[in-house]
Amino acid sequence: MDDRQLAETSLSMTEDELLAALGAELTGTSTTYLRDGDLDDLQMRARNWLERNWRSLRKLVCGSPTVAAVRGDEFLELLAVADLIAETWLQRPGAITVAAIICRFGLTRLCSEDPPSSIS
What we know:
With 120 residues, this protein is mainly α.
């Protein structure tokens, strides 16, 4: 799947699906064959990662002229944020997932709030 398809898919995912996908990326596992409790564990790992990195993500994204230039276009925002994250932390699939979480949360909220308990 290329970046465009992955971004489109990520934008249509639920919060739980995004968190599970991020947790799977962080742990190197798959969400295909999960046992009871695995999904919750992946989502918890993703939430913990987001909480630990929220301020750094905020600084990276909110100070970016590239992101500022595409504000208002959810798809381009996602790709711009994913590019920044891919340069700093994660490979493309994980970066796109984090970018989708951030875009779902909202860039305005990201730049003004502490880590959320929910991204909706």
